[in-house]
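User: I'm putting together a teaching handout on how multi-component assemblies are represented. Below are the sequence lines for each component of a complex, exactly as they appear in our records. Could you produce the 3D structure of the whole assembly as structure tokens, so the students can see both representations side by side? Please keep the chain order the same as the input.
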Amino acid sequence: MRLTQINHVFAGVGENAINTFLRAFLTARPRYINYGTSAFVPATTAAATNVPSITFPGIPGGIQYAAQFSIPVVDLFPPGGPSSLPPGVGELNMRVDAKITVSCFRWSPNANRDGKLQVSSTPVSTVLTIWAKGKPDVRYFGPGTGDVGFDLEEVKIPGLACVGGKPDTFEVIVECVIRMVLQALLDGIRLPFSALTIGFFQLILQRGPEISDDQVKLWGDIS
Amino acid sequence: MTDITLAADQAAATKLLHDAETALGTRSTGPQGGSLGPFSATFSASASFSGGAIDLIAPNIIQITNCNFNYSVDLSLSVDLNSILPSFCLPQICIPIPFDGDICTPKICISWPTITIPVSYSDTITFTADFTLNAHLSGATWLVDVVIVGIPALDLSPAAVAILAAIAAAVTPILLAIPFIGLFLALGVDAILAAIGIAGLLGLLGPLLTPFVSGLTFNIYNQPKVFQVLPNSSPIDPAVNINLDLIQAAVLASDKNELVLTANISA
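Assistant: Of course. Below is the structure of the complete assembly, with chains in the same order as your input.
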């Protein structure tokens, strides 16, 4: 069967390649999956991103936390294995583990003799396995110039699933927060056309991206 | 399953070929010394390729039809006129002087000079040839080359005729500048052209131009093994690279034959 169909060129990028791109990106720039407030990440470097603490009146320095994500593993339709959120036709899913650490403060409501609060902190952590489902998102700027990203539609955290099958409000809130965070994280990870075509041609995008046969597929012409 | 599959139909492959022709640019050879007929000559040539249409033939043939072979030849002929013109002497003339003998001029023999005849000629020949795909790692660079099979026949006869005419046109003004040659002008031109002949020119042009098409290689893919996905954009966003572990190329048969390049990559 012709690959180019009614177009002149075709690019098919398999899920292994997508995962390789993600590994390359996030190994070189781990700051996109490692976040922490100043107590954990004093300054933004290639390794981690400094984020502001969550302020709350009366909590000294605000709530200090860190969020470390594993490198996402993407599965393109059809599903390659069991999943809490398998990709449907034209969809992808990804699995990512998130380690959330909160610095658990305790402080005396009264200052000591030299006027300073006595504060102690204990980091507490949890690891969540996250499943996310979505579709590829494309931006096209002109011949050979464009990129493909990830547009998440749904997130599932099996560890939070309620017994009765009906999501409780806590699960809904956490999954909503995680979806927002994960989408924001993924917005910074986009794969340029030049990488998807490994420099073979300059793609004039006419159709796609579509997902099938474990591939992201694009069609078009060349300049 | 390969990681990345890229396909181009014949129209797209033709564009890739034309880009490769442009990238190949103009190649040149010489100047080098040799002979053209009985004369010594210095010659050089340059050539480029353009146009042509691709026909993809599975599993590994790319036929290029009507590829333009654009070439230029620069010749510099060195002709010792003494070898082709008769010797010529002004006879001694004596004038009798009454009561004092004769006053005679010396006998003067003309020694014909060696002349240099520069000729430049440019033309385009179209040819059709089969090429094969060759994907290989050269050092740290992956290349996919389209390599000609055999040596296409180049019809150089029209060029030989044209160059002979160009030599005739070039030699006339050069000869006219030589004293006393008037009587021998036509003889000189004819002798030079006869000495060279069409066969002589074909004998020169063939070995001079054939190397441009022998082993002719168009490169349609050229990327480092360590392929840059994203450049270094700031101290906190260093470059992102992947490894191109294997690149393969073939012509895939279907109702619309395609040039297919596949890649396996790693982080």
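A couple of points students might notice: Residues 4-266 of chain B form one domain. The CA atoms of residues 172 and 186 of chain B lie 9 Å apart.
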